[in-house]
Amino acid sequence: DVARSQPTCMRCAFPKSAISVVRNFSLRTSKRVVRAASHANAASMDSAPRFRFGLLADIQYCDGDDRKNITGTQMRRYRNSLNVAERAVEYFNANALDFAVHNGDITDHQCAFDFAADDFKPIESGRENLASVMRILSKSTCEKWIFTIGNHELYNFTRNELRDGVDTPGSSLSFRCANDAGEFYYSFAPSPGWRVVVLDPYAVSIYRKGRQQGLCEEAIELLRKHNPNVDVFVRENPEVIETERMSGTFPYFKDMDGLVGRYVPFNGGLGPEQLAWARDTLSAANAAGEKVLILSHLLIHPDSTAKRSGKTLMWDYDEMLALVESPQTGGCVKCVISGHQHEGAMFTCDKYGVHYLGMESPMLASDESPGPFAVVDVFDDKIVFKGYGRDRSSILFPFAGDAAPSDPIVREFAL
């Protein structure tokens, strides 16, 4: 329990000759060095991991100037997020990955909507902004990428586009948020004894259908039921169903104290069908003796949200959490990795031994660190995150001193 509640923090065993992070944070590698880094990494552990993946979330790029978010609590450096993505890919390429993950919100709402003009931008604008990101990710030597669905994907593209793939000129990597079968929630076995479960936390959402498809009226009614600010706004602006002009247009957190604060336009839920699928999938994994790692853009544990505010929770988190902690699933879920909460997240439930972790957003990256991004090694008895945070106050990868560490920081989570 102590190991779970106080994860190990150390410097990675990579030799400095393997990966050099210089003052401008360019990572210099070669084929020989990549092999050396992989061998050094393997030698630093008791055995090879069951599987390894690269991890990014909330790049949320747009070709726009730096500015604060609507609450004035974050300085968002939109263009700089491409620099972080470039460094992440170089770091990923120094490791032999089984797959790579971007855990939702790859481009910003501003790519699709001109808030000053109160109108949608041309579709080509969103595609070109996405292409700017995808051209960088296409430099990855890892061919398998998982793109989970976030709210900003649905601001920018239709769900059909996200299922079939969005055209991104100049990129060799396809952007789609579904698997080969066209499913937005699914599972796969990356190695014997392990299963990765990918969730769609916007199966129930006012933006479920995607850009310019009209808001989902059933989800609107659900929001109105739980959030009086939404109820007033929709009553006074019934045209919002067609205009989709809801995000950031009114104070939807006003007087919304506690976990009910999750009922806001930029969140969503799994819905009964996906919850039933999740129950069956986790039960089958438990019966097969598999350990489970869950990927979801939205968070599912209140204690992993900032100040336990609940503002980044999925609407039906309680039902999903009940499955994770159910005797029927036998404690097979070991880790839940999210995005959405730009400052990151880290919470361990000692009772059930589940780690709830969230990657920080590259939008918030300072000039004192190359991150945020990570390589994740999954063993049978631990999960090891090796990477960089957004700055010295990073939740996952904090550091002290005047300069960023030359080697990746390691966080070890016992299973």
Structure explained in plain terms:
The protein has 415 residues and is an alpha/beta fold. The chain contains eleven helices and 19 strands. The protein has helices spanning 2-5, 31-44, 80-93, 123-137, 151-156, 159-164, 217-226, 228-236, 240-243, 271-287, 317-324, and strands at 8-11, 20-21, 27-28, 51-56, 67-68, 75-76, 99-102, 113-114, 119-120, 145-147, 186-191, 194-198, 291-295, 333-338, 345-349, 354-358, 373-378, 382-388, 409-414. The strands form five sheets. It has a seven-stranded mixed β-sheet with strand order 1-19-18-17-4-7-10. Strands 11-12-13-14-16-15 form a six-stranded mixed β-sheet, covered by helices on one side. A hairpin with a 3-residue loop joins strand 17 (373-378) and strand 18. Helix 3 (80-93) packs parallel to helix 4. Residues 1-6, 11-24 and 26-40 have low confidence and may be disordered.
